[in-house]
Amino acid sequence: MDYHVKDLALADEGLRLVEWAERDMPVLKLIKERFSREKPLKGIKIGACLHITTETANLARTLKEGGAEVFLCASNPLSTKDEVASALVKHFEIPVFAIRGEDRDTYYAHIKAVLDKEPHLTIDDGADLVSTLHRERPGQADRILGGTEETTTGVIRLRALAKDGLLKYPIIAVNDALTKHLFDNRYGTGQSTVDGILRATNRLLAGSVFVVSGFGWCGKGLAMRARGMGARVVVTEVDPLKALEAVMEGYLVMPMEKAVEIGDFFVTVTGCKGVIRKEHFLKMKDGAIVANSGHFDVEIDLKGLSEITTSVRNIRREVEEYTLVNGKRIYVLSQGRLVNLASAEGHPSAVMDMSFANQALCVEYLIKNQGNLSRDVYSVPAEIDKEIARLKLISMGIEIDTLTPEQERYLSSWEEGT
C-alpha cells in the first residue's frame, strides 16, 4: 500500500485514541453500521484533505465500511496526529499521506499523491485539494462526480470559484449545515481554542482582556467560552450587524487599533487575511499573546511582524517570543496556524460526530444524485440536517414532541386566523 506517515510504530497508540473518540461519536457509528450493511459507496474512490485526527479516522472508517476506497492527506501541516495517521495505515489499511510539521512542498506533494489515485469524489477542509485540482489538473477535475467542503474558509473560496464560472463539479457546503456550524463552529471552536491557548501558555484567563477578532459562529463560541473563564471580552468586527449583535450580547466592541492597546490575548477567527498587522503589534502591551483559530495562517501578518522584530526565540512548545524594535515582547502561538489543533486536539468528538455524519451522508447523497446537480456550491439538504439532529437526540436519550394531524393541517393552511 502506498502511504507516507511518520512511523508505523505509533499505530497501536493511535488505535487506542481512535477507539476512545468513537465512544463519543454515536451518530457516525449508526451511519457506519448501516453503510456496512448496504454498501452505498461501493466502487467509489474518495480523496480527502482533512485534519488527520481521531475523529477524521472514524469518518474514514465509516466511508470504507460503505464500500469506498479512501485516500487521506492533511489540510494543515500542524494538525496531523502522527499516531492516528499510522493507525489508519496499519490497522485499517487506509492510505494516508501526512506528517505533522511537514513543509509546504511536502504538504502539496501529499495532496498530489491523493489526486494521483484518481478519486471520484473529494472531501476538503479549506479547499486546497479542490483548488490544486482546478489549477493544475483541470482535465482530471472534469471527471470528478462531486465533493464536500468542511469549513468556512473553503466554502468562501469555492463560492468564488463558482461565481467566476470555473467550478468543474458540484460541491456540498457541509460547513453551512445547521448541525455543523451551530455546534462545531460555536461549541467546538470555542472550547478547543481556549484549550489550545491554555495548553500552550498555562496563563490565567480570568481578569484578562481577551480580544476576539470576528463574530461569526466561531467568534461567538470563543467569546462565550472566554467570558465563561472570567475574561473581559472585546470583539472587533467589520460587519455592522455582527458588531451590533456582539454589543447586545454584552461584549465591548471597538476597532483593532484600539483593542491592541488594552488586550492581553488576541485570537483571530475571521477567515480573512492581515487582521493583525505590523502597526497593531507596535501598539500592543509587552507580553501580549497572539493566536489564530481561522483555517489558514494568513490572519496574523507574520511577515510584517518579522520586519519590526530584533530577535525571535522558541520559549515554550508552540510559543515563539518576538522582541520588537520598541523593546516589547509579543508571543505568537503555533506559528499563527490553527491553535486549537496545533496546540491542542481540535474539537471534542461529540461535536465532530455531527460534522462528520454530515460528510458521510452528503457523500452518499452525491452518489445517488450524480448527473442531477450542476457545477455549483449547494447547501446540505434539509432532510440530512434534520436526520442528524434526530439521531443525535436519540443518542442523548432525549425525546421531543411530534405534530398532531390537526397541527399539521393548521401549519399548511392559510384559512385559520384569529
TrEMBL record:
Substrate binds at T53, D125, E150, K180, D184. GO terms for cellular component: cytosol. Keywords: Cytoplasm, Hydrolase, NAD, One-carbon metabolism. Binds 1 NAD(+) per subunit. It comes from the Bacteria. Its main location: cytoplasm. Its cofactor is NAD(+). May play a key role in the regulation of the intracellular concentration of adenosylhomocysteine. This is Adenosylhomocysteinase. It comes from Caldimicrobium thiodismutans. The gene is ahcY.
